[in-house]
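Dear all,

This email documents one entry for the complex benchmark we are building for the journal club exercise. For each entry we list the sequence lines for every component of the assembly. Then comes the predicted three-dimensional structure of the complex as a token string, followed by one or two observations. Please use this as the template for your own entries, and keep the labels exactly as they appear.
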Amino acid sequence: MKQPHKRPLRRLYTTAILAVVWIATVGMGLRTLMSYENAPGRVGAIRNAWPAASKISPPIDRDVLVMLAHPQCPCTRASMDELGKIMAHVQGKVSACVLFLKPQFAPPDWENTELRRTAAKIPGVTVVSDVDGIEARKFGAETSGHTFLYDRNGSLLFNGGITQSRGHSGDNAGENAIVALVNDHHSVLARTFVFGCSLVDKARKGNRAQCLN
Amino acid sequence: MFKLNSESSGQESSAHAEALFEAHRHEIFCKTDQLFARLMIVQWFAGILMALLISPHTWTGQTSQVHIHVWAAVFLGGAISLFPIWLTHAWPGAAITRYIIATAQMLMSALLIGLTGGRIETHFHVFVSLVILSFYRDWRVLIPATVVVGLDHFLRGIYWPFSVYGVLNASPWRTLEHATWVVFEDIFLVISCLRSIREMRSIANRTAELEVSERNFRETFEEAPIGMAVVGLDETFLHANARLCQLLGYSDEELAGLNTEEITFPDDIEEARQLAKSLLNGTKRYTGEKRYIQKNKDVLWASRTASVIRDKDDQPRHFLIMVEDITQRKKAATALQQAKDEAERANNAKSEFLSRMSHELRTPLNAILGFSQVLERQELPLVQRERVGHIYRAGQHLLSLINEVLEISRIETGRIQLSVEPVCMGDALSEVLDIIRPLASQRRMQIERNDFVSPETNILADRQRLKQVLLNILSNAVKYNCDGERIAVTVEQRTAHLRLSISDNGPGIPPDKRNRLFGAFDRLGAEVTGTQGTGLGLALSKRLTEAMGGKIGESQPDKGASFWVEFPIVASPRERLVSAGRPTLVPFAAPGREVKTLLYIEDNVSNLTLIEHLLGDEQSIKLISAMQGLLGLELASRHRPDAILLDLHLPDITGAEVLARLKADARTSTIPVIVLSADATKSQIDRLLAAGASDYLTKPLDVERFLKVIDQHLHARAPLVCATA
């Protein structure tokens, strides 16, 4: 008579233990994921003016938006989506250039990715290869998706990421700041975190940038 | 009792409905658990696939490694899914299972949203998940799901506000806005769940009522004390209850599929087929007797009721038959009938014996009475005269005994002939009182007669037999009354009957013997008192009265005895004639027409009066009458009438005897005899016409025919004229 009672009791204990394990595992897993997604990338030395050594033509008659991107980075897709939105919002007031990292000895299709093709399709956007990340270093970008906005005088108005977290589309502070600066010439925000893959190999990584308001 | 049963049935139905509801609900919980178990697996693998397609690697310059999304999809997705999947097997249908599933589903939403980079389309997973969770029809399951969504936003807002709202300082109103959309959907899903529960409960109630009703019917069917079966339209048994199986000796399985004709007595098969046809053609129900052949080949007599069960389109579906075993009843009835036949045969034999014996006794009695009277006329010594007197009185007693025995015998064998017709009660009573008064006077008794109705009132009876009954009762009153006492005769109306009561002041009838009053040969102890009697008078009176359609009985007065007879009151022939507006004779006295003589032999004064009334104004007819048969024969010989009207029931000899003597006498043989009788049986008519009657008229008289017949025999050349009154 006691045997039938034992089984449900044992099952109850098992369930309770599994529930605790489950809550802990899932909690930890989600926390890890969230931490990863919300961990900003590193930034290099940022100059307040257009880098003189850059081979990219400086702004002449309008503001210029420069984005440094890794062609293989899945997180930069979100940045590219946001770039498309920005370009739509500013409508010809800004010329944009996306510099895609291209290792010197990489095969030709290494940079010919869907991400590059998407960037090329955005009106007003020029796509350029950045061999070995030379231009990125000149601009001070170490994380894919790092975006810079310069006025026609070559002064840096904004730099940072245009996604709210790693690979996360949607409204974000960077996008809003750029649009406001171009359209209203004013924004309370001049810097944001950059979320994306690293443009620099581990050996050459600099210090992690701090979030700036 | 009915109300009690109804309440009991209601409680049973309610409890059963609750059980059905819970079972249905549990089934839904289990099925939805299984649905989510499968969905969890699909979502898990879908998450892995998405991660592999969207973000397989993360890059650091020129080097890459597996993206954390892939690991998250594999391990975190697995961790989220496996525990609820295990619960669906360990605790299927349990509340904890669906609450964990709801939590896990929302966590899976969070994971998938993360894997797709927060695509707005992936957020639909949250809303779709809530809808799928509502499949449980348990609104409570939406609570943990909503809490998880809220908690997700709340914790992200605290720890990573940028990831949720795109701003570093998240406003609490944003949390509220996001939660409101979820709650908005929850409201409608809760309404949907509650409505579903109501519908489920309603279905459960209806199903429970139906099942309880069906179970009650099935139990009634199974436990019915009579055999019941459902029979297909092809006459094969579909289902039989225990009682029918017991009656037929077959099991339910053996009967199922058996054609009813296979166990029907061969002689009854055709009738059964016709019955089935008539039921299919619209006869609602049929009850009749049928014989079945039991498994042990015995015959079962059954009272079978059959009806057709039809569907909603009135198309026949099957037969319902109810079978009651009447074998014992049939056997008893057969035995009873045999016993009755045997008793009747014995009674007839007894009556026949009595009749023959009585006749045989009358022959020597004739010699005894005859010679004793001869001896009385001779000069005999006193002693011898007294002895002869004893012989004569004993002979007379024996004769009356024989006569009464013969009468009873005739009644019992149905050979007594009665002429039931309107009789004037006053006249009949007067005649009887005239007979009995001298006897009463000898014992100084007074007879008081009280008529509370008209003396002309007619009753329906046989005149001679009525007088015989009254004479019997009155003679008893005289015999058993005390000397010098009085006898009261009362005539009164009792609704549609006339009651004649005869009371005396004698010792009366002991209460314990009253039930034996009308038994034959039972004198209730009077045989020891010296009062003469046969013990047959009242028995004979009862049989005669009832044979005439009357009643006889005894009431219990304070003193003495009181007997009564009742007969239905009828209109006298003359009243009937007038009320019917029948033709009456218009006096027809054609000049020079010969006067004809008509003799009417009839003892009933009412009938005589009627004929006198009909022919009274006809001057061409001379009507003479006789109230006894012998007197009629004498008048016929003397007057040689042109025609004779003859009643068959006469006080001295029968009408048939009168007819026979008229035809036997050369002086009267040619006179046409028209029989007037209440007996309208064909055999009687044929017998008398064969015996020489010229015509036969039945009572009550059809006056037109009567006048035609009279005219035919008296005035063949000059018909009587009739006119409507």
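Observations: The longest strand of chain A covers residues 94-102. The helical segments of chain A are 3-37, 76-90, 114-121, 134-139, 173-184.
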